[in-house]
Design a protein that fits this description.
By secondary structure, the chain is mainly α. Helices cover 73% and strands 0% of the residues.
């Protein structure tokens, strides 16, 4: 992947982080809930997407991306708890972490590639 393509992914990652945080602090819209834990699925999907965008921008840093996104998710929950219309839910943070599991194969492949060199 060329450096200009990585730069595009880095900007997309930053924009997605900003947009997700902004949306997380907006009042909760009325949506049709298909399953009771739909919110957790949405958190996992968001963080999987963020992880993949981050990995596309920084392919050699899967563990740093994961740790950074875990801190980001915690900050998001704390910020939601400070609003009068959202709540901080530790289970949302767990769902964020589950979404980050998509990085495990990339982290392990980087590790095994380093051991082979």
């Amino acid at each position: 992947m060329t450096s200009s393509v990585r730069t595009i992914f880095r900007f997309a990652f930053a924009a997605a982080l900003i947009a997700a945080f902004y949306l997380a602090l907006m009042p909760v819209p009325d949506i049709v809930q298909i399953v009771s834990w739909q919110d957790k699925i949405e958190h996992a999907a968001l963080f999987a997407t963020l992880a993949l965008l981050g990995l596309a921008g920084w392919p050699d840093r899967p563990l740093r991306i994961a740790l950074g996104l875990l801190l980001y998710g915690a900050a998001m929950e704390i910020a939601q708890g400070q609003t009068g219309y959202r709540t901080a839910d530790p289970w949302d943070w767990v769902a964020d972490a589950i979404g980050l599991l998509v990085l495990i194969p990339f982290a392990l492949s980087r590790r095994s590639a380093g051991e082979q060199a």
